[in-house]
Design goal:
single chain; 353 residues; 6-stranded parallel β-sheet; 19 strands
């Protein structure tokens, strides 16, 4: 099996003085509000700022969250505007087009979502040159790339939730299949957070053993159709939840809090976030998910992952799909004409939720 090469950002890691951690969340819809609640329960941030064009909605969530605060951590929770993101250590962008209960792809609403995210990323980049932007808005991989360009921030400081949640779904299903705890399963979903995602079965491990070896050790049947069914269930899980209850919020909120915790605590945790792909991988200028070390500077390095031939072809196909959608925003050439998203922004004047 071949291993994709690694990339490590050059230069020493900055020494960041200790201070109270502030997290801003832009977008007070279901994902934004649930993320604020999960973040407050985690205690990882001293202050949470909730931002939305509908200030009354943000104020209402803040009052509700303050009522819950005495039962968990002493976290300051306030409503604010984009200017308040200037002092945030991490800004989470959840604003975008709500996913439809139909069978539309996450890529279908790209222009409208881009029109919402562009002014947010641009303003935060101007107000906070040391910001870390964490994107949850879909299509997250395309918007992560676009937010990097719009914000002017270093590539490592703009990342998306990517397949962090997909990887968790994948590990949970493998754990249920093999009768072990999910934390003893090490496997990744890579590529797009969407239809072209790649469950990397060839490198999956249970208690350090390859899947075939684990099955032999436990006297279990090595059932390839069952593994393919798990991979497909992982791919469609979000759509299944949306069809059943109208939206996903708990899983993605927990994933975002996990990423924020890794950043603020400088954990150097390995998570499958979406970030700019290193040139050494030969996938082109694109953001997609690969295992990455996450610390106080954001994405500190992208790690190699062993892939078999089919998986390597699949990740390259996923990258091509995403690059095609990035191209529709005219971001590749800095001297290109007006972005399609700019046109949509003038036409739509959307809210932040």
């Amino acid at each position: 099996m071949k291993a994709m090469s690694s990339w490590i950002e050059g230069g020493p890691r900055r020494s960041t003085p200790r201070r109270e951690a502030r997290v801003a969340i832009v977008g007070a819809g279901r994902v934004g509000a649930t993320t604020a609640h999960a973040l407050a329960l985690s205690g990882v941030a001293a202050e949470i700022v909730l931002v939305d064009r509908d200030r009354a909605l943000a104020d209402g969530h803040v009052q509700d969250l303050r009522d819950a605060a005495p039962f968990s951590h002493r976290t300051r929770i306030v409503a604010g505007g984009l200017s308040d993101c200037g002092a945030a250590d991490v800004t989470i962008i959840t604003a975008g087009v709500p996913q439809s209960p139909g069978m539309r792809s996450r890529l279908d609403d790209l222009v409208e979502s881009a029109s919402i995210v562009k002014p947010i990323a641009s303003e935060i980049g101007r107000a906070n040159p040391s910001a870390i932007l964490l994107l949850a808005s879909n299509p997250v991989d395309v918007l992560t790339y676009a937010a990097w360009r719009w914000s002017g921030l270093p590539a490592g400081r703009v990342l998306g939730s990517g397949t962090t949640l997909d990887t968790s779904r994948f590990r949970r299903r493998l754990a249920e299949r093999y009768g072990v705890a999910a934390e003893n399963v090490h496997a990744y979903v890579i590529g797009e957070h969407g239809d072209s995602q790649v469950p990397a079965l060839s490198s999956a491990r249970v208690a350090g053993l390859a899947l075939d070896d684990f099955c032999r050790a436990r006297g279990l049947r090595c059932d390839e159709p069952a593994l393919l069914a798990i991979a497909n269930e992982t791919r469609t899980a979000g759509f299944d939840i949306v069809r059943a209850k109208g939206a996903t919020c708990y899983g993605i909120a927990a994933a975002l809090v996990r990423i924020v915790g890794a950043i603020l605590r400088d954990e150097r945790a390995v998570l499958s976030v979406s970030s700019l792909v290193p040139d050494s991988l030969g996938l082109g200028k694109v953001c997609l998910s690969l295992p990455a070390v996450i610390g106080r500077e954001g994405v500190e390095c992208v790690l190699p992952i062993p892939l078999d031939g089919a998986e390597e072809r699949a990740i390259r196909a996923s990258a091509e799909i995403l690059k095609g959608h990035i191209a529709t925003l005219n971001l590749a050439d800095p001297d290109a004409g007006p972005l399609a998203a700019d046109v949509a922004l003038r036409r739509l004047e959307p809210s932040l939720v």
